[in-house]
Structure prediction request, 158 residues.
Amino acid sequence: MKLNRTQRLLVAIVAIVGISALFASGAAALAAAKANHHNGQQLLGQKIKTNGHHLIDKKGNFTASVEVKNGKVAGVHVNHSKKGAVAVKKYKTDKKMTGGSQGSYQNASFVLGQSQYLGTIYIGYAYIDDYGDEVIYWFPYDMIYDGDTGAVWYVPAQ
Prediction:
């Protein structure tokens, strides 16, 4: 079958529009996931003074607990009521991810009362909920038992 120039152009336009629609729907699906930042230090409170596992949050089927060892956070564990233990990813950042409006953050070095030269590193423990959203509990570095061992730099979605 031989196509003339107009028919080839029409086929090319349809293909480009179809591919563009495919990429647009994929980008929309990726953009739908969001991060929910929580102040782990505030949620843990005075329980930091007692060794053991302490419940800090419950969201739907998920229960988050902190393991405290010698006054420091030794780990965060998340359990799903039906599926059991959930994978937790460890992040680090130099931005304060909690406080202010939901999803806002600011450079830690500009927070009053902190050194501009040293800054503050925050360690976050994250899991993915049933809706594909990331839930992250942030703690100052000095509260973490093993520091940033195994943590990867957190890059917030734009």
Summary: Helices lie at 5-32, 40-44. Residues 101-117 have pLDDT under 50 and may be disordered.
